[in-house]
Design goal:
Elements (H helix, E strand, L loop, with lengths): L2 H16 L5 E2 L24 E13 L7 E6 L7 E5 L3 E8 L8 E3 L22 E7 L4 E6 L4 H6 L4 E6 L8 E10 L13 H6 L5 E4 L6 E4 L4 E8 L6 E4 L5 E6 L2 E9 L2 E3 L4 E7 L7 E6 L14 E8 L27 E10 L2 E6 L10 E4 L2 E9 L5 E5 L4 E6 L2 E2 L10 E4 L3 E9 L3 E7 L2 H5 L3 E7 L1
Parallel strand pairs: 2-5, 4-9, 10-13, 12-20, 21-24, 23-31
Antiparallel strand pairs: 1-2, 2-3, 5-7, 6-8, 8-9, 10-11, 13-18, 14-17, 14-19, 15-16, 15-18, 19-20, 21-22, 24-29, 25-28, 25-30, 26-27, 26-29, 30-31
The protein binds CU-O-CU linkage and copper (II) ion (2 copies).
One copper (II) ion binds next to β6.
């Protein structure tokens, strides 16, 4: 079978082979539970308001496909990388060492950091193999964030460089259990090695792997207690794959997203999550003890007939035996957040793709990074933009350094319950999303499509925030 047709068969056949796999060798031991919760990073600082962790990027062997090993790139020996736990207002200090054969940086996706800590090339020299760098900043927002390199993103992230940060605030909702859900995928050859070739489809749509992973595993099982309210913090770390989650017979009560809790929780039967986005949901699994439910990835049309894919099982949700819990109520309200002003857009930023000299390029206002003219604003100013997607595919728009709020879609104001601080939002194909942001920190900030092959292909620009 050719490489190509093998890859096409990929998802189903490899996932079967892969069932039950996902352990690292030579790294930290995987958590004993079948859900594969990321390992908490060790805080070496006794000050309760300072979280200080060591982080090392290094190669490690992991088994994704039974009988094979994959050389992955890890933070501290695990994929997903460690979970950094902190409280709102804490100072985070990360002593980073690059033990990889290639230069790298760390970007703190969604965290409002000072510009020089943002991990992009414009503000820091890449950290060479063997070198170290200390990241230090204050955690200004409670929520669920992730970190990843900002050099060679498509290669380094798919190889396993991503970790999690959970920042707790004073308004955490009540839940019986809390779990982390890291959605991703890898594109592997039959021998377990990464397939790093990009075919035309992957250049166009972003690379989708042939092994789909939850917490670095295929089909892990989440055990929930009968009647328990389980809080799930969900992130999509895939290069290009969108996840459209469904748990038959159940709804997810959405209580938060990228930038923390939202004032008006709502129920979603499908949870569509593009690369980079996060959702914070509560789930009360219904059924007799012993019931097994399957968390599904339902097809979603993000362009070029991707909606014709088959539904795909991702994980098992098993209702455990234990004593039934009395059943907490699902929250109807969340903490208030400041609503930024609405109004007409001052500018339209257009996203599209085009063949330039026979090569498919992803463009912003007709230009590819680094030629996209920077947006110039002043620190503290509020701006409204129309993000216009002229392409026949969705682009997940991501902004560094600031949250934004969605005001309207195709001119129609969004529902009240959509008030949320976002750092990544899907721009559906051939549509316009209006956003508002307050640029309250000076520096040079990036915005880009979070389909990593599109970032690479030019769909990235800069915002210069003058002091
Ligand atoms: Cu998560 Cu510039 O990215
Ligand atoms: Cu980011
Ligand atoms: Cu894109």
């Amino acid at each position: 079978m050719s490489e190509r047709s093998w890859a096409l068969l990929g998802v189903a056949s490899l996932s079967l082979l892969a069932a039950g796999c996902g352990a690292e060798r030579g790294g930290e031991p995987a958590a004993p539970d079948t859900w594969g919760e990321p390992t908490a990073a060790l805080d070496t600082n006794p000050d309760p308001e300072v979280v200080e962790v060591d982080l090392e990027a290094r190669e490690v062997e992991k088994t994704y496909l039974e009988g094979t090993t994959t050389t992955v790139w890890s933070y501290n020996g695990t994929v997903p990388g460690p979970l950094i736990e902190a409280n709102l207002g804490d100072t985070l200090i990360v002593h980073f060492k690059n033990s990889l054969p290639e230069e790298t940086t760390i970007h703190w996706h969604g965290i409002r950091v000072p510009n020089e800590m943002d991990g992009v090339m414009a503000v820091q020299a890449p950290i060479a193999p063997g070198e170290t760098f200390t990241y230090r900043f204050t955690l200004r927002d409670a929520g669920f964030y992730w970190f990843h390199p900002h050099v060679m993103e498509p290669e380094q992230i798919q190889k396993g460089l991503f970790g999690l940060i959970r920042v707790r605030g004073p308004n955490e909702p009540e839940a019986d259990d809390e779990r982390i859900v890291v959605l991703g995928d890898v594109l592997l050859n039959e021998d377990g090695s990464f397939n790093e070739e990009l075919d035309d489809d992957m250049i166009m749509m972003g690379r989708e792997g042939n092994v789909v992973l939850v917490n670095g595993r295929t089909m892990p099982a989440l055990e929930v207690r009968p009647g328990a309210l389980t809080r799930l913090r969900i992130v999509n770390v895939a290069n290009g794959r969108f996840f459209n989650l469904a748990l038959p017979g159940h709804a997810f009560r959405v209580i938060g997203t990228d930038g923390g809790l939202i004032p008006e929780p709502y129920d979603a039967e499908r949870l569509l999550i593009s690369p980079g986005e996060r959702y914070d949901v509560l789930l009360m699994a219904q059924g007799e003890p012993g019931t097994e439910l399957t968390l599904m990835n339902e097809p979603y049309e993000r362009g070029h007939h991707t909606g014709h894919a088959d539904p795909m099982p991702l994980a098992t949700v098993r209702i455990g035996q234990g004593p039934g819990l009395s059943g907490r109520a699902l929250p109807e309200t969340g903490p208030a957040i400041e609503r930024l002003p609405g109004g007409p857009a001052e500018a339209t930023i257009t996203f599209d793709e085009q063949y330039v000299d026979g090569k498919l390029m992803f463009l912003i206002d007709g230009k590819a990074f680094p030629d996209v003219p920077p947006i110039e604003v002043e620190s503290g100013s509020v701006h409204i933009y129309d993000l216009k997607n002229d392409a026949e595919m969705d682009h997940p728009f991501h902004l560094h350094g600031f949250f934004f709020q969605v005001l309207a879609r195709d001119g129609v104001p969004v529902a009240e319950e959509e008030l949320a601080n976002k750092d990544t939002v899907i721009l559906p194909q051939r549509s316009t999303v209006r956003i508002v942001t307050r640029f309250d920190a000076p520096g040079m900030w990036m915005y880009h499509c979070h389909i990593l092959e599109h970032t690479e292909g030019g769909m990235m620009g800069e915002i210069h925030v003058a002091p």
